[in-house]
């Protein structure tokens, strides 16, 4: 009888251990499912650090169309801040165009080049826009160039050094920021690391 009670206790302990283990595995699966679905936007922090949702904005491109960052969710976004007078910006533009031509569609990427229009050295707003258009045409750029005439986005993103580029994954989360110019290989490698 004592043997049976002892055996019963051992069986109950084993059953309790198995139950605990199974519960832990179910909890882990739920965590993985939640992570793969992504947190709701409201639960994530809006900021400029890795894992944050980038501040949203709506700016106008050179064709007069409005572009809203959050509407690009589902695509990877290379968000680049630049100015026409900036030598490192000039150096990286051909690399960005080469990436855009060769890989952007296949990689599900949109490049948004935000011109810090308020920082352009021309006197009038129209002259600044003309300078940006001349720059675009001179470099034969086909990716979207957005104008930031009030420095709203530049200020929100705390852009001090240009170029500054944020890499945003398809869930709308910042994964990396780079200050300074990029070449084609660096751009490709950084985008490939997003998802």
Question: Your description of this structure?
Answer:
- The protein is α/β, with parallel strands linked by helices and 195 residues long.
- It is 44% helix and 18% strand.
- The protein is elongated, with a radius of gyration of 25 Å.
- The relative contact order is 0.17.
- The model has no long low-confidence stretch (mean pLDDT 88).
Q: How are the secondary structure elements laid out?
A:
Blueprint (H helix, E strand, L loop, with lengths): L1 H36 L20 E4 L4 E3 L7 E7 L4 H16 L1 H4 L1 E7 L9 H15 L5 E3 L4 H5 L7 E5 L5 E6 L4 H9 L3
Keywords: Disulfide bond
Pfam families: AhpC-TSA
Protein name: Redoxin domain-containing protein
Output the strand order for the largest sheet. Answer: 2-1-5-4-3-6-7
SSE arrangement, N to C = HEEEHHEHEHEEH
With helices defined by DSSP (H or I, 4 residues minimum), what is the helix count? 6
The overall pLDDT, averaged over residues, is 88
Question: What oligomeric state best describes the polypeptide chains here?
Answer: single chain
- The tally of domains stands at 2
* Percent helix range: 40-55%
Low-confidence stretches: none
The CATH topology of the largest domain: Glutaredoxin
The CATH superfamily of the largest domain is known as Glutaredoxin
Terminal Cα span = 61 Å
Radius of gyration: 25 Å
Strand content: 15-25%
Q: Using the coordinates above, name the CATH class of the largest domain.
A: Alpha Beta
């Amino acid at each position: 009888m004592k043997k049976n009670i002892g055996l019963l206790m051992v069986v109950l302990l084993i059953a309790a251990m198995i139950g605990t283990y199974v519960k832990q595995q179910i909890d882990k699966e739920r965590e993985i499912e939640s992570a793969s679905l992504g947190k709701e936007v409201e639960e994530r922090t809006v900021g400029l650090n890795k894992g944050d949702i980038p501040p949203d904005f709506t700016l106008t491109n050179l064709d007069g169309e409005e572009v809203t960052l959050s509407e690009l969710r589902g695509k990877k976004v290379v968000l680049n801040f630049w100015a026409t007078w900036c030598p490192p910006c000039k150096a990286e533009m051909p690399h960005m165009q080469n990436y855009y031509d060769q890989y952007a569609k296949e990689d599900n990427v949109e490049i948004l080049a935000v011109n810090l229009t308020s920082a352009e050295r021309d006197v009038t707003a129209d002259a600044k826009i003309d300078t940006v258009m001349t720059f675009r045409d001179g470099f034969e750029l086909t990716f979207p160039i957005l104008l930031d005439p009030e420095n709203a986005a530049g200020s929100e993103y705390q852009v001090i050094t240009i170029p500054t580029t944020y890499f945003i994954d398809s869930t709308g989360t910042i994964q990396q920021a780079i200050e300074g110019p990029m070449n084609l290989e660096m751009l490709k490698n950084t985008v490939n690391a997003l998802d």
